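Standup notes, protein team

Yesterday: finished cleaning the Azospirillum humicireducens set.
Today: SfnB family sulfur acquisition oxidoreductase structure.
Blockers: none.

Input for SfnB family sulfur acquisition oxidoreductase:
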Amino acid sequence: MSTAVLDTAPKTADPAPQGVPGLPRPTKPAHVIKDDAEAIAVAEALAREVVGTASKRDRERILPVAELDAFSQSGLWSINVPKAFGGPEVSYATLARVVQIVAAADPSLSQISQNHLGVVAAIRTVSDEAQQRLLFGEVLTGIRFGNAFSEFGTKRAADFATSFTDEGDHVLVTGRKFYSTGALLAHLVPIVAVDDQGRAWYAIADRNAPGLTVIDDWSGFGQRTTASGTVILDRVKVPKTHLVPGYKGYETPTADGAIFQIIQVAVDNGIAEAAIRDTLEFVRNRSRPWVDSGQDRASDDPYTIQAVGRLTLRLHAAEALQEKAGLAVDAAVAAPGAETVAKAQLAVAEAKILSTEIALEASSTLFELAGTRSVLAEHNFDRHWRNARTHTLHDPVRWKYAILGNHALNGVNPPLHAWS
């Protein structure tokens, strides 16, 4: 009989996770895009630059530092800054198309921009003119906002334990965040924190502020290079010039929630576009026809042709709803009210349903149509499904159906929050 030996040696505690230093601010001003057409052209040029190395970055989890610098310096991070403050103020249909173009090349890179663009929109909605001039001015120079919004320990996603205390000309923020996409590589970090009345503000802190620690601990199987990990806040000082009353965007009808949502729609459509692109290339050039098809080429298999037709149709439908939603958002931004905002929310909900479904369908059907050799690690095609499955979890599609049904059946407008 063997005798078990107990290890009674004292255990050494795991070392505390280490924060990652922030990146330097840009040394020269970012380009300022002049109109919608230029925004699309710049996005297409950027996509061509980054697409070739996207799979390697995913496989080896290489953060897109140089790619992100190129992205924000291109002017695409200021495209929703209002014209009155020197920005191009493109249509939200154009903004969504830009996000999709970049996402089709690298969805992690594209996702890093989503909260920045949403915060820019929120500043337009809730900040006074002086704060808008200050913060939009920083955005136009190439400053990137990150994100320290969501928390692990609260009962619901809209509940926040992170808070701040008023210290006169500044506030001190304390709390802990997760899913902090963009914070690691940002220059400024908007933190959702509540005041003593429970109202949520964006406290926009310097990335290297004392007490602000960003930990690179994102372990999700998809969107691997978003660095959507932990932010620890220990009495972080934020000047009141950078304290944005985000709660005002949801006290009355505004387009803020719809804007956050349409950006997510565009990321998912980009993932679907990339999966379909790789399906077509592989079926044309590498797949073998099925033994019973009687065809010499896999691309002539009638069932494959039918399946590709379905994917193409559903992506085009998702893109059409995305464009429609973008125009509805434009109308709500121009004239916010219960009716215009509800129309934007409903249009975005429709787009979100289809973008989720086509991203998941296209990234799974790829393997069915391309065949067994498409699962080889050298192709890394599973990244499309991993990215789709991860990113589409931001908010449940079943609740989008509920929003549409409750409005159609009972005339109930969607709720006002960042997920609607």
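Follow-up from PR in the comments: Confidence is low (pLDDT under 50) at residues 1-14.
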